[in-house]
Protein: Protein involved in sex pheromone biosynthesis
Amino acid sequence: MKKKLGFLSLVCAVMLSGCIPGLERSEEDVIVVEETEEEEEIEYIITPTIESPDHFYRNVLVDGTYQRSESRGSVAHSMNSRIDINQFELGLMEIASGVYDQEEYYFQEGTFLSGGRINSWLRRYDPEEERYMYGLNPPLADEESTEDQMGDNPIVLSHIMEHNYYTGSEEEGVSLGGVVMGISLNDVYYFQTEDEDGGYHFHERDIDGEEALEYGRRAAQTMLERMREMEGLEEVPITFALYQEEGRGSVVPGTFVSLSQAGSGEMELGNWEAINEDYFVFPSNRARDVQPNLSSSFSQFREDIENFFDHQVGVVGKGRYNNENLNELKIELNLQSHGKAEIIALTQFISGRLDSAFSVNVPIYVYIESVNGSEGLVVQYPEQEPYIHVYR
Structure:
């Protein structure tokens, strides 16, 4: 049954500002809507805007409660690394920002696809068994799975994520404006086989990137057709973005590689658009060859840090590029023995070096870690004073 949402009232409450300079909260919007057919009133709260370079979406809370996707618990078991999990979710929001204006739309985790439905789609296809008949991963010829058979038919789809974007106004009420779907593709297939003696053997096979991309595009079309049959998704625009994971042990996350959209009520996805995103690790031979200027700047910065301690320190940088332009730079320092006074001096030292060390107009994040956990943080946004924090 469709829900008709009508705008009843708007309540504004002034929120306290956060403690980080440059981050200011706007007034909180409380939108009350009426679910007329069931005669019950639901309060939708739109979280306040935080003015920051990241331009995060405001969230839709139902009766003051964050709506958590049922599928959230399954992602950690299907993707290969923590950094892939984080980038998959945050990157999907960035994809959405190119479609849905952050000033006009509000974010909510996916509520149409249950965890059970997503898991059924991630299984191998087998029309003979009900629990596998909706699987979107390649089938196996028989139950006696051998190393070659499994390796030649790898699991390609590792995870599916749904994000919903709502819009509303005093005149039109609040409604679902669009859905953004993320499909994660394995770069390496990890699997195990059992021998006649009951022993297990672990294997891995690389997956061809172009073949995985084409497989993901076909799977997205099938998902679109299934979603159009679901109540509430018959007419809304749906965007699909394909994410290419990195293998286990990688120090950088994967990247989104392609996206396509079906407009209101459309049953076919349009042309697929390539996404040019890349990561570089500093120091590395690849960074030195492809990004020599930033690589040189990073080496000098690392030398400054080592001079501060008068010995070598673990310093690693990760540069994220979009369309060959640097988007952000993250630097991690790993310390051994230290005192709090030393950490304070180090954060002050770093904050005074970032401007002169890196002539880049992008956010720079420096994370200071030790065996005891997080020790300090330095954030430098373009044309702003650096923010520093020492963990107690």
Residues 112 and 230 are 8 Å apart (CA to CA). The chain has three domains: 1-63, 67-275, 279-390. Confidence is low (pLDDT under 50) at residues 1-36.
